[in-house]
Design a protein that fits this description.
Length: 167
């Protein structure tokens, strides 16, 4: 190998080092926003493909996984800068209803985004297409129960009942 080849390899190494330093020193604005600033879509259980849906039955909110494909509930994920979490809402009867937890904790809906338990973290599971939706206040994830109810379970990345995917 001549001096010219060594010089070319030195230039390539220097360029690669500059690129690496630049990539790792830049603060990427959407680093913590897996879904971007706003995402509208469906939430499905990871293996049964049951759709998360919300209803108000006799004045009481109900959050469950629905086996029927006729229901096409869309949720809006809005990233909130100050909390670093998402607000998850659904338009119901012309009003935005926010997914929240009660003090028990159980899943519920509320008309105010300022209520307790309305902030959610979206966590990607490894290098897969699955995610977990974890409440910021109680650190519990939304999961599918045997009865098709959506329940909260303690955050555990190995609990596949809490895996969801988006569409």
């Amino acid at each position: 190998m001549g001096k010219k080849d060594k010089r070319i390899w030195a230039y390539i190494a220097a360029a690669a080092l500059i690129v690496l330093i630049t990539v790792f020193s830049v603060k990427w604005p959407d680093r913590n926003r897996l879904l971007g600033s706003e995402y509208i879509g469906h939430i499905y259980n990871y293996d049964t493909f049951k759709l998360l849906s919300c209803d108000i039955i006799d004045g009481n909110p109900r959050v469950s996984f629905n086996p029927s494909n006729r229901f096409i509930d869309e949720f809006t994920f809005t990233y909130e800068e100050q909390s670093g979490a998402y607000l998850i809402s659904k338009k119901m009867q012309g009003q935005d209803m926010y997914l929240c937890i009660t003090s028990e904790p159980e899943l519920s809906l509320t008309s105010s985004s300022d209520d307790y338990g309305c902030r959610w973290n979206v966590i990607k599971i490894g290098n897969t297409m699955y995610y977990m939706i974890v409440n910021e206040d109680c650190e519990c994830a939304i999961a599918l129960a045997n009865s098709l109810d959506a329940v909260l379970v303690p955050y555990d990345e190995n609990d596949t009942s809490a895996y969801v995917r988006f569409q």
